[in-house]
Amino acid sequence: MCMVFTHLMELNLSRNKIMEFSQEMCYLDKLEILYMNQNNIRVIPEGIFPHLKMLKFVKLSTNRLAKLPSDINQCTSITYLDLSRNCLQNIEPLIGLPKLKELFVERNRLTELPFQLFQASNCELTVCEAKANPLRCPPEEVCAGGTRWSCWWEHTATSAETRRR
Known about the structure:
This protein is mostly beta strands. It contains two helices and seven strands.
């Protein structure tokens, strides 16, 4: 990667039909804002996010992500994360992002949200948008308050009963 780009603080690669999240992204250690939404990214390789220590704002919505790299939680400066309109079934790798304030995971394939995301000791999460996921129920920590929560969830038993009628 050209040395000129290593000093980038903001990078917008939205709407470029990108299919791969380049391993070379790890050299952008000054990066604070990343837009890679509306592409065709299926996989983010391990080993990139631990190098992006300054990254605060990440928009990866409208891709084809099926899973997150397990080391994304080592990018501890993230405050805003948009993963909506992907194919995610699990967001447990997000546990341990201490500065995360806003999380958007609408229109994925999530059946549950990790309760640890909503514990005050783990992060500063104040907004979680999880609409249009087949969620079984919201975490108790959300029901207790503290997080502005928005979701539609389908209770599988209720849905099955409705279909039988």
